[in-house]
Specification:
The chain has six helices and 15 strands. The chain has helices spanning 46-63, 100-105, 134-139, 145-167, 212-215, 221-231, and strands spanning 3-9, 13-18, 23-28, 31-34, 39-42, 70-75, 78-82, 85-86, 89-96, 112-122, 131-132, 171-178, 180-183, 186-189, 198-202. It has a five-stranded antiparallel β-sheet. Strands 11-10-9-12-15 form a five-stranded antiparallel β-sheet. It starts with a strand and ends in a 7-residue tail after the last helix. The protein binds cytidine-5'-diphosphate. Cytidine-5'-diphosphate binds at residues 90, 92, 99-101, 129, 175-177, 197-199, 211.
């Protein structure tokens, strides 16, 4: 397989066309950004660590019955994925209150959320990813009624799979963001799952093991991501 031109360059990942029109290469870069791109940095080795965490987690999600765009880990910072038509929507599930939920509703930080919360956001940097609901999605044609239900059920299924997976590693899955796309006539999970797009707390100490380390200048960002990989039993090749 040949890697051809870059077609999308996001804040932390790039997508490349390949000689197979149905497959793309997803490259996890070392670039890191927060607060709508206001704070950025290059974090040595982050791309490789996240590529390996994502590959491991996507396989677990697929085994748990949720179709994903992930095909296989290629090397270092690259994975092979299915080419999809992405929906401009972010799906967030929260098991513990923190972040924008606390700012928006004045909810106490660290509160257990039972049942967990589900929120839709519009993927639009210029508008700072505003919160939306099912009606906005239908009226503006961002997804069908059936796709809305599928996004909710798949995002909650991912919650069951990953809460258990992380709990076995002594880690709390606090919240996370998923994105979906259309491929071969059905909805599949796209994008990535890594400590860049979720919140993970140590079960005992509640120490932050995710991108909040970068957002809040807590230090040891990639070292902590590597620790998460190690606790999940992930081998990172050199
Ligand atoms: O990060 P912030 O407090 O602004 O947003 P949030 O709504 O509390 O984020 C909920 C979860 O979704 C966190 O795990 C974020 O890391 C993740 N998220 C993301 O990965 N990308 C976004 N554009 C928004 C949220």
């Amino acid at each position: 397989m040949q890697i051809l031109d870059e077609i999308i360059s996001g804040k932390a990942k790039s997508l490349y066309r390949t000689d197979d029109p149905k497959r793309l290469v997803m490259r996890f870069r070392n670039d890191t950004s927060a607060f709508d791109g206001e704070k950025t940095a290059q974090l040595d080795d982050k791309g490789r660590v996240n590529n390996h965490i994502n590959a491991f987690v996507m396989k677990k999600i697929e085994e748990g019955g949720v179709p994903t765009h992930f095909v296989k880990l290629l090397s270092g910072q690259d994975s092979l994925v299915r080419s999809m038509e992405m929906l401009p929507i972010e799906c967030v599930v929260r098991n513990i209150a923190t972040g924008s939920l606390c700012r928006r509703l004045g909810i106490e930080e660290g509160l257990d959320l039972e049942p967990p919360l589900f929120e839709f956001f519009l993927k639009n940097d210029a508008l700072h990813d505003p919160m939306i609901n099912d009606f906005h999605i239908l009226t503006f044609g961002w997804a069908t009624r059936e796709e809305i239900e599928q996004m909710k059920s798949m995002t909650f299924r991912v919650n069951e799979i990953l809460k258990k997976l992380f709990a076995e590693a002594g880690i709390l899955l606090v919240d996370y963001k998923l994105e979906f796309g259309r491929c071969d006539g059905r909805l599949m999970l796209g994008d990535e799952f890594s400590p860049d797009g979720c919140r993970l707390w140590d079960m005992q100490t509640r120490e932050k093991l995710d991108k909040d380390r970068f957002r809040q200048d807590l230090g040891d960002v990639v070292e902590t991501y590597r620790l998460v990989a190690e606790r999940l039993g992930i081998q990172i090749d050199h």
